[in-house]
From TrEMBL:
It comes from the Eukaryota. This is Ppa. SUPFAM superfamilies: RNI-like (SSF52047). InterPro entries: LRR_dom_sf.
Length: 96
């Protein structure tokens, strides 16, 4: 479990490091307005070749993720059981 909610110093680079943690099952990135979709891509591995981890719960509440990011997460993280995207203003009805 990695709970980084409300940590103001988190950057895209930190998420690249977290991506290497193959035993990571849960991560909370709530309220990261300054983390880009590319950073979230580092974490989840936006291709099947890199998404080897077993992440089963991802909280992105109040983040800047878009419909495209949601689709990529759905394709990349096949073990994901919970995806929290409340108050993500860039997600439309199409992405949710």
């Amino acid at each position: 479990m990695m709970d980084l909610s409300l940590c103001k110093q988190i950057t895209d680079t930190i998420l690249l490091i977290a991506w290497g943690q193959k035993k990571l099952r849960y991560i909370n990135l709530r309220s990261y307005w300054h983390i880009s979709e590319q950073g979230i891509g580092h974490l989840v591995g936006f291709s099947r070749n890199t998404a080897e981890g077993l992440l089963c719960s991802l909280s992105l509440n109040q983040c800047q993720i878009t419909d495209q990011g949601i689709l990529k997460i759905a394709k990349s993280l096949q073990e994901l059981k919970n995806l929290y995207i409340g108050q993500c203003s860039r997600i439309t009805d199409m992405g949710s």
